[in-house]
Design a protein that fits this description.
Rossmann fold, TIR_dom, 3 domains, 5-stranded parallel beta sheet, Toll_tir_struct_dom_sf, alpha/beta, Toll/interleukin-1 receptor domain-containing protein, receptor
Length: about 400
């Protein structure tokens, strides 16, 4: 079930004390973020069979006195091939405890700072974003009250929620703003009432979500044909006793009972975990494929950026950005320079999928490229970037 989807932390190395302390620090940080630690599956070599390639994963390799055997190296290679972020931690001078296969990655020298490592892991899982965005799609004439109820519930659970009646300013191009906001969200919560799929706009929102690979959670009203959604894993079939009053499809004042609400929140969080990893992976795949098509070598690093080493010895950093690039992305990217520890960074570029972003915002980003140190590259221009060797100009 998607509601049980996990963030996977793969622990390689034999420092049991380190990994026990790391788990405690993660628990503390999850408590601060008001997240459930059960969303993380802790995986070692002993239970590596529990690893799922369809769920977000982060690999921590701790060196020290551990000597990796062929099984460990096979696991590492599998994780590299799956495109997962790998954080190699060296406990010795000269990185002698890091296997050759990981020496091309940025290596973190162990300095007893667990908080730094926890933050890297949370950033890798996109859990440190200030906003965790949900878009509620519904038919006003059938589920307005439940939509407002869920809006309030999700805001209480630290989500940034888009609801058309609460989130679109007067005078905005309503439908264009909906598509724009949708592309920037992590999950779409669809309230599938009797007339939902009969609505032209609800169907278009469903279509747009699939094109953008945005995760969807479907709440299916009693009496609606579940078979219409059987191909969707992220769905909850509501029963009449899930509502506060005896269910009538035309009763707009009805609300959901309290005991069904945690299940909805958990499913949204689980879907969000998978979705962010999938969308970021899609950007990374498209960008690295464009590089490969032009015989350019790039490398995915543990801080969630792609590096390209130039013949001059300088490095270009590419940061895959889910949703709409904002000024906060640029600010975070500048801070990343300190984490990278490389003085010879030629430039930083945010790479993003431009589909369904409003023209005025795309024009704004293009304009900013003439003025800001941190610049952007649209998905539509990935190939041209390498063909015309823009990186070397």
């Amino acid at each position: 079930m998607i509601g049980n989807c996990k963030y996977q932390l793969i622990q390689l190395g034999d420092n049991v004390d380190f990994f026990n302390k790391l788990k405690i620090e993660l628990q503390n940080k999850f408590d601060e973020l008001k997240l459930n630690i059960d969303f993380i599956r802790f995986i070692t070599e002993d239970n590596i069979h529990e690893y799922s390639g369809g769920e977000p994963a982060y690999v921590v390799y701790f060196g020290g006195d551990f000597i990796p055997d062929s099984d460990t190296l096979d696991i590492i290679m599998h994780q590299i091939n799956d495109g997962n972020i790998i954080l190699p931690i060296s406990a010795k001078k000269l990185l002698a405890d890091i296997p050759e296969i990981l020496k091309k990655y940025n290596i973190l020298e162990w300095d007893n700072n667990l908080n730094k490592i926890v933050n890297l892991i949370l950033e890798g899982f996109e859990l440190l974003r200030k906003s965790r965005k949900v878009f509620i799609s519904y038919k006003r004439s059938e589920s307005s009250n439940v939509a407002i109820q869920l809006y309030e519930l999700l805001e209480q659970n630290n989500f940034d929620v888009f609801l058309d009646t609460h989130s679109v300013d007067k005078g905005e191009d309503f439908q264009e703003e909906l598509w724009h906001r949708m592309t920037d969200c992590d999950v779409i919560l669809m309230l599938n009432t009797d007339g939902f799929l009969k609505s032209e706009w609800c169907n278009k929102e469903l279509e747009k979500a699939h094109i953008k690979r945005i995760g969807i959670v479907h709440l299916i009203w009693p009496g609606c044909d579940f078979e219409d959604f059987a191909y969707l894993a992220e769905s909850i079939q509501l029963k009449t006793n899930d509502f506060e009053k005896p269910f009538y499809s035309s009763d707009l004042n009805n609300r959901l009972k309290e005991d069904i609400l945690p299940k909805i929140v958990n499913m949204i969080e689980g879907t969000r975990a998978r979705n962010l990893a999938s969308r970021q992976d899609s950007i990374i795949t498209d960008f690295t494929q464009a590089a490969s098509n032009n015989s350019i070598s790039v490398q995915l690093q543990y801080q969630r950026y792609i590096s390209q080493e130039l013949s001059s010895g300088k490095t270009i950093v590419y940061i895959p950005t889910v949703g709409i690039p904002q000024s906060i992305n640029c600010h975070s990217s500048e801070k990343l320079l300190n984490k990278i520890g490389k003085k010879e960074v030629k430039s930083i570029r945010l790479i993003y999928d431009d589909l369904s972003i409003r023209d005025y915002w795309l024009d704004h980003l293009d304009w900013l490229n003439d003025y800001l140190e941190i610049k952007t590259i649209k998905k539509i221009n990935f190939n041209r970037w390498f063909v015309t060797k823009q990186y070397d100009k």
